[in-house]
Design goal:
By secondary structure, the chain is α+β, with helices and mostly antiparallel strands. The strands form four sheets. It has a six-stranded antiparallel β-barrel. Strands 3-10-8-5 form a four-stranded antiparallel sheet, with no helix packed on it. Strands 7-6-4-9 form a four-stranded antiparallel sheet.
Length: about 450
């Protein structure tokens, strides 16, 4: 009987203990677990990436200054040409006729000039004769041999002859002008005839041919393009556009690399040759044309290929870095609890820069400031020169061994869009290998009938 009583007491104690455990679990609420990533010492490269098009350094469009039918083509696509080489001809028949007509007009005007000069000589001789007759009549009139009427007639003849001389001189000048005019017309006709032969203006390679034999080109309104010649395909360039936020990091002679779809496993190297000052505005985005030159000795790369350009602008070697996901993490806390936790570790939310929100840490106030040289832990700009990048403030959350969070205020440096350099630890401690929260999973007990699990990712 006593043994049976002890069994009932033991069973009652077990039930009471189970009830206490269940009640404790229900009062304790949700259990929080964090996904973590480690802070580590590494090398970070800040790279500007863009997409561009491969082009020849110099492209010359060869056109026609005269209209007509294409009579012959002497080059085709990919033909190598030399400067002055005949590459096409326009039917010259009409232009040859124009030259012949202009020459005939010139000869006619020269004959007219010769006739005018002869008339001038004749008029001059007549003027001399009439002048002598007038002088002789003047002497005879004084002696009373010639009547006054005869003297007046002799004077009129002399004046008429002198006027004829002036008219003949003007005719000579007009004929001379006609000769010059016809000479100019002949020169124009001969020039147009020369333009029927199309010559290469530079040494290079024909990359485009836009006409065929028998096609008629009209140059009355706009010179048609017959060929496009690339001067030298062993030295080419990538024309790309850089965002205005990155253009300040571009320097002349800066090293650049790029890839093309034709050779996906090969990296090509070039240098920044020019950042053009003319901005391009597309959908409120301002970009600047940037030219990357490179050597193409084997001719692998063709004009028009799409190039994926990477331009390293800074490098931080052997620096402490945190994952970018740790910068975006924000604990699920009420504002008052968050403020109290930050104040506990000496971090004031009012003292944090507003740009922390861009980094995803959730603090407010302040502004970005530069850091004196030497605070980057050995980071240098690509090329070896010291660089003072723009720094932002952020808060990362360190996960302790007991599962609690500890905020650490840092000043960030450059980023490769996966990891970000820790330029300076402002408040707290952060060492390589320590766990940082990057997400959160929450499990909760739903009721006394049994545990249920809910997972919430942040």
């Amino acid at each position: 009987m006593k043994l049976l009583k002890n069994k009932w007491v033991l069973l009652l104690l077990v039930l009471i203990a189970a009830a206490l455990i269940v009640g404790f679990r229900m009062r304790r609420g949700p259990e929080q677990k964090y996904f973590t990533a480690k802070a580590q010492t590494t090398t970070i490269n800040d790279v500007v990436q863009a997409t561009g098009t491969i082009n020849a350094v110099i492209n010359v469009q060869v056109g026609s200054q005269v209209s007509g039918r294409i009579a012959a083509l002497y080059v085709d696509f990919n033909s190598k040409v030399r400067r002055g080489q005949l590459i096409a001809e326009i039917d010259p028949a009409l232009f040859q006729g124009a030259v012949l007509q202009a020459r005939a007009d010139l000869q006619n005007s020269k004959a007219t000039l010769a006739s005018a000069k002869a008339d001038l000589v004749k008029a001059q001789a007549t003027a001399v004769q009439t002048k002598a007759d007038y002088a002789r009549n003047q002497g005879l009139a004084q002696e009373g041999v010639v009547s006054p009427q005869q003297l007046d007639l002799a004077r009129a003849n002399a004046e008429t002859a002198q006027a004829a001389v002036q008219a003949a001189g003007a005719a000579v000048q007009q004929a001379a002008a006609q000769v010059e005019q016809k000479q100019a017309a002949l020169s124009v006709a001969e020039t147009n005839l020369k333009y029927t032969s199309i010559h290469a203006p530079i040494d290079g390679v024909v990359v485009a041919r836009n006409v065929d034999v028998g096609q008629t080109v009209a140059a009355s309104l706009q010179a048609p393009t017959l060929f496009t010649i690339a001067q030298d395909l062993t030295k080419m360039q990538v024309d790309t556009q850089i965002d205005e936020s990155d253009v300040g990091n571009m320097k002349m002679g800066q090293e650049a690399t790029f890839r093309v779809d034709a050779y996906p496993n090969q990296t090509f190297h070039g240098k920044v040759a020019q950042v053009r000052l003319n901005p391009t505005l597309v959908q409120n985005v301002v970009t600047y044309d940037t030219v990357v030159t490179f050597d193409n000795p084997q001719g692998k790369l063709f004009p028009g290929m799409t190039a994926y350009v990477s331009i390293p602008v800074a490098e931080a070697q052997n620096v402490l870095a945190v994952p970018n996901s740790a910068l975006r993490f924000k604990p699920d806390m009420k504002p008052d609890a968050m403020r109290s936790l930050l104040e506990k570790y000496g971090i004031s939310p009012q003292g944090q820069p507003a740009k922390t929100a861009r980094a995803g840490a959730g603090q407010t106030g302040g502004e970005s400031r530069g850091v004196a040289p030497g605070t980057r832990g050995g980071g240098t700009e690509a090329g070896g020169a010291a660089r003072e990048p723009r720094h932002d403030y952020a808060i990362v959350w360190k996960v302790r061994q007991d599962g609690s969070l500890e905020p650490v205020s840092i000043r960030t440096g450059i980023t490769d869009h996966t990891q970000t350099e820790v330029a300076q630890v402002l408040k707290g401690e952060l060492q390589p290998g320590e766990d940082l929260a990057i997400g959160m999973a929450t499990s909760a007990v739903k009721g006394p009938s049994g545990p249920g699990a809910g997972v919430r990712m942040r």
